[in-house]
Structure formats: C-alpha cells, structure tokens
Design brief:
Elements lengths: L1 E4 L16 H4 L44 E7 L6 H14 L2 E7 L2 H10 L6 E3 L8 H6 L7 H4 L24 E2 L2 E2 L2 E13 H7 L7 H13 L3 E4 L8 H13 L1 H8 L10 H15 L12 H9 L3 E7 L2 H4 L10 E4 L14 E10 L7 H11 L2 H11 L17 H13 L3 E2 L3 H4 L1 H15 L5 H16 L11
Helix pairs in contact: 2-14, 8-9, 8-10, 10-18, 17-18
Length: 481
C-alpha cells in the first residue's frame, strides 16, 4: 500500500525464518493476473519531459543516462522499507556512474507536494502510503510521464523482448489513467485475511471457508477473551479489504466493475454490496471486534494481533515484512482468502491480487534519461532479486527471483493462494482512478465500524460518492469492459 500503498507501513529488516523456495515463487509466473480491463481513450498528462541531462546511448544504456549525473530518488519507507532502493542505487552508481540522492519517508505529500507545485520534483518517486499524492491528481495536473517508452524498451535480461512482455499479465493495469500507463505498480500483492497458524492449532480452529464459519471462530475467540477481528481503525482502507472482497465474491466481477465504472446502482440497488456491508457490520454488532481496534493505527492493531489478542486481521501481503520485529518466532503467519457469503458467484479460492506500490517519473524530472534507465533496471531479474532479498516480497517480473532467495511463511501462503486462485483473481481500480471517491468510501466505513451509521446509510454515502464522481466528464475516459 501497498498501497496500498497501503497504509503508512513501518518495516524492520528481513528475518531469518524462511520457507519458500524459488519454485514456489515462480508459481506466480503462471497466474493469469486478473485479465483486467483496457481503459478506453487517451488524454491528458504532460509527457514532454523536463530533463535534458542525456549521455551517449548504447545497448546497455538505451536512454543515455549520463555518467557523472545525479538522480533524485524518493521512496516511501513503509512496509517494504527502503533498503532495497539503496541497493539499487549503489548498483546504478557502480554500473553507470550515476549517483543518487536518496530520501526514505512516509511523508510523501508533505515533502513532495511543494516540490511538484514549484516545478522541481524528484526524478523517480515511490508514491505510496497513507500520505501519498493521488496518482489521478498528479496526472490531471500534467505532472506524470507516460511510461510507454520505458515499457517498450528492450528488457535488461532479454533485449529481444520489450520490458512490458516480461511482466505478470494484468499488473500494469492499476497504473492506467485515460489509457496511458503513468505509474508502475511494482510489487505483486495479495489482499485478504490473516491469522496465526500457531493460535489456530492451539485453539483447534479450522481456517473458515464460509462467513458463517468465520463468525463461529470469532464467537469462540470472544468466549476465550480474544478478539475475533482486528482492523487498523485509524486507516479504514483496511476494513474495506473485507467489504470490497465480499462484494466481488458475492456478486462476481460484474459487481466489482459496477463500482469502477460508476454505475448508478453500484451500491444502492446492489444485492452484493448490501450483503457484504451487512456481513461486516454483524461482526461489529455481535461484539466480535478486538477491543479498541477502531482507535488504533495500522501498526498498533497489527502488533496486538501478533500478541494473540485477535484471531483475524485484514491486510495486504506487506503485513509480514512490516511486522517482523513484532511477530513471535513461532507465530506462523498465514493468509486466508475472504470467506464466502451464501450464494457467492466466485469460489472461496478467489482473491484480490495484483500490483501495488506505484512508482512514477515526474514529467519535469531534471534527469529523465537516468530516471527511465533506473526504472528499466527495476524490471531486471537482478534488481527484482535485490528487492526480494531486502523486502521479503515478490515483484511483477515473471520468473524474477534467483534460486537462493527464501521468503517467509506468510509470503509462502500468499504464493500458494495465488496458485490456487488461478483465473479467479480480481482487482478494483477506483482507488487509482478516483482518489476523492475512494476517500469518501473509506470515511463511510470508518463511521460504520464505529456504529455511528448503519449499513443502509453506508450504501447511500458510497453511492453518493460514485454519483458525484460520475458527473466529472473526465471519468468517461476510464472504463472496464
């Protein structure tokens, strides 16, 4: 988060427990990631470029990154940390003679909005976290480079292939704005529920496949003084993982696309949306939430979950790396697809999966040649492997991890879940296309979890956010078939 981007994650270093070998990681290469949309039309954005520091081009340096040049890199220092970027920068300097100024921060908007406004942005940015600048806003202001030139460049590993042809299918789609790829979502991410294998073995619980079974575990947990569900209350993005997953699994891809396509019945009039929000609200009504979770940050809730104070938590697959310091050695972190509501269209194995953590190149970057070459090398096996070693996660590059890289148990379970899901993967795009609408939906969910509104009012507020967005003429340029 990410995303998400996905919340302002903190991170420790990679730990010692690791169970996943390359063969499991490579299983992602065969996952047909979502068969997502094609966005219709093209439009806005200023991709004329702001940098002219160009050197001699060559087979190994097709964009002409000039030796002796400087690259300004800003990385969201969250769930994946920023050690991986420092390793990339060191290699870039060694091989091309381009040195980097590095900033690792969670205050993306605070540090970068003034620079964008002044026409002095960094050269490459990991625009993620709770304080990210919305991609759609940057695009509409003409501040992002169209990445087609990078994606159509020769792959570092196989110059006979374009960079875009080396990526897991569908993973470029979240970076689309009006038909252009303006953000590179770099990390292969899975979203859903998480639990402790140790706690479940100790309590004799089975991972639930239906919502009724999920509620039964929550009920038993509460009877033993343990919360059923923890969520990161101060960041309602996370509880929307549950609500939105339930909508997609209950109503199928049509229910998901209705939201992305701003349908007048996306929420009000949608049986899937009604069933999903009522199911999550039942957890609140029956007292199955971990006490205090509504008032906690993401790391506070996740740490209490690590202390066995809740059976489940919602999150993306950055969770394990984010919680390394707080996770007991024998915790045995596990991923679980969202359990099914009665009459669901998609199977239990269906998961929300795809790419997260968007990297962008500002259109007015001072060193565009080096920024493009840096991004091209991000999509090499060498740099993908550096990321896996440092951040304990997989990238969007097919076959992108060397045999010696080992990841931890939670990541292993996400790889297995992705393989089990097969074609049954899905991914919302309204969060990338419509930042204001996404914020309004999160605000409604915050009110819902605090019992300040009921499911019916949640549906009305979400539909109002959709209807407001639909009035923007630019919205017609984004569409999922």
């Amino acid at each position: 988060m990410g995303s998400t981007s996905e919340g302002d994650h903190d991170r420790a270093g990679v730990g010692r427990r690791a169970l996943i070998t390359r063969s499991a990681a490579l299983g992602l290469a065969g996952v047909p990631a979502m068969g997502l949309l094609s966005a219709c039309a093209s439009g806005g954005g200023d991709d004329s470029g702001g940098g002219t520091a160009k050197g001699k081009t060559s087979k190994d340096n097709p964009f002409g990154a000039a030796k002796g040049g400087k690259l300004d890199v800003v990385v969201f220092k969250g769930g994946y940390g920023d050690d991986y970027a420092k390793a990339w920068e060191a290699d870039f300097d060694k091989k091309l003679g381009v040195t980097s100024s590095h900033t690792g921060t969670q205050e993306i908007t605070g540090k970068l909005q003034p620079r964008f406004n002044a026409g002095n942005p960094p050269d490459i940015v990991d625009d993620s976290g709770a304080q990210k600048i919305n991609i759609d806003v940057l695009y509409k202001n003409g501040q992002l480079l169209d990445l087609a030139e990078v994606l159509d460049a020769p792959s570092v590993d196989d110059p006979a292939r374009k960079v875009r042809d080396t990526l897991i299918p569908g993973t470029l789609d979240p970076g689309l704005q009006e038909g252009k790829i303006v953000a590179l979502n770099y990390i292969y991410t899975v979203w859903g529920l998480w639990y402790s294998g140790k706690l479940f073995r100790d309590k004799g619980w089975q991972p639930p496949k239906t919502w009724d079974d999920f509620l039964a575990v929550c009920k038993d947990a509460r009877s033993q003084g343990i919360g059923g569900l923890a969520h990161q209350g101060k960041y309602p993005y996370y509880i929307n993982v549950a609500i939105m997953d339930l909508i997609a699994k209950k109503g199928g891809l049509d229910a998901m696309k209705a939201i992305d396509n701003l349908d007048p019945r996306a929420f009000v009039g949608s049986d899937a949306a009604r069933a999903a929000v009522e199911a999550v609200y039942e957890v609140v009504e029956k007292g199955y939430l971990m006490p205090g979770t509504n008032g906690l940050t993401h790391t506070e809730s996740q740490t209490r979950w690590n202390q066995y104070k809740a059976a489940f938590i919602t999150c993306g697959s950055w969770l394990e790396n984010e919680q390394l310091k707080q996770t007991p050695t024998d915790f045995d972190m596990k991923f679980l697809p969202m359990p099914l509501l009665s009459g669901s269209v998609l199977p239990f194995e269906a998961i929300r999966a795809g790419s997260g953590e968007p990297f962008v190149i500002p259109s007015k970057a001072r060193n565009l040649p080096a920024a493009k070459e840096f991004m091209r090398r991000m999509l090499s096996k060498e740099w993908s492997t550096l990321f896996a070693k440092q951040a304990n996660s997989l990238t969007i590059l097919k076959d992108g991890v060397d045999p010696d890289v080992r990841l931890r148990p939670g990541t292993q379970s996400t790889v297995e879940a992705s393989k089990a899901a097969g074609d049954h993967t899905f991914r919302y795009l309204y969060t990338e296309w419509y930042g204001e609408m996404g914020t309004a939906i999160e605000a409604a969910s915050n009110e819902l979890m605090a019992r300040r509104i009921q499911p019916k009012e949640w549906l009305k507020r979400c539909q109002a956010a959709v209807d407001k967005q639909a009035k923007d003429p630019a919205s017609k340029k984004n569409h999922r078939d």
